[in-house]
Write a structure and sequence with these properties.
heterodimer; A: Rna Polymerase Sigma Factor, Chain: A; Arc Repressor Mutant, subunit A; 10 helices; about 65% helix; disordered C terminus; B: mainly alpha; elongated
């Protein structure tokens, strides 16, 4: 492929990659840096890209490594170290369930998934909800769901136990479903 | 809900059921956990809805990655 065309295609993915990296690193400058590294590496390694995967998937694979490197570099980050334990605390979820363990507010029927997933606005709300997650919760959720790191890798990177990881991901999912309920499924935005 | 169904679904609470629904995405559940969860979901409409909501979240994230 023509190098200029390829460079333009890479450029077109910069927005998406930056969004993912910001959610992951929670730091605009660091995010732009890893995205820049990713685009440079992708351009240099463009022979390695085959049409077997989409460009976005391929780039996300490269970005994943850059982000893991960045996380490794700042492993000693005191903010992360101190904030993580409090985000692993499940106490503030007691509001969702009664003392007995039953639902406080039962989940509502979200209807046909396709009706939501077919709308671009749904993903805007989704993005909003991802950004609203507590920083480390969001970071871990993105590692799992977007970077597709397996549990073992995440635990190793963050030096947390599998149990910690399950609690964090549970929190993330509970928060996301609350947020989607509030801003999409329960709100007026569902009707076009 | 009849009495038997209620008793079966109460082997685990809704809170525990939601934790298992989330965790099965990271680890295989034990046979006992699987049975408890399956019975709970069969009898509890709220938690089955929750399960479908997480499935929608999975699918949303899958498309988000693309």
């Amino acid at each position: 492929m023509d190098a200029n065309v390829f460079a333009a295609q890479l450029e077109a993915q910069r927005g998406y990659l930056t969004r993912v990296a910001v959610l992951q690193l929670r730091d605009r400058d660091a995010a732009e840096e890893v995205v820049q590294e990713t685009i440079v590496a992708a351009f240099a390694g463009r022979e390695g890209f085959t049409a077997r995967s989409t460009l976005r998937t391929w780039l996300t694979g490269i970005l994943k490594h850059k982000i893991v490197d960045a996380i490794r570099r700042r492993q000693k980050d005191p903010v992360f170290e101190s904030a993580l334990p409090e985000e692993m605390d499940l106490d503030d979820f007691d509001g969702l369930f009664k003392e007995s363990g039953g639902w406080q507010d039962k989940p509502s029927d979200w209807g046909d998934p396709e009706a939501a997933l077919a709308r671009q606005e749904f993903f805007d709300v989704m993005n909003f909800c991802l950004e609203k997650l507590p920083p480390n919760t969001g970071r871990v959720f993105m590692m799992r769901e977007v970077m597709e790191l397996d549990s073992e890798e995440i635990c190793k990177e963050l030096r947390i136990t599998p149990n910690n990881l399950w609690v964090i991901l549970y929190r993330a999912r509970m928060s996301l479903r609350e947020c989607l309920q509030q801003h999409w499924f329960g709100g007026a935005s569902r009707t076009p | 809900m009849n009495k038997l169904a209620r008793r079966i679904s109460h082997l685990i609470s809704c809170r525990e059921a939601t934790e298992l629904v989330s965790q099965l995405r990271e680890r295989p559940l034990s046979p006992l956990e699987r049975v408890k969860l399956r019975l709970h979901l069969a009898a509890c409409k709220a938690c089955s809805r929750f399960e479908r909501q997480l499935a929608l979240l999975d699918e949303a994230m899958r498309r988000y990655r693309r």
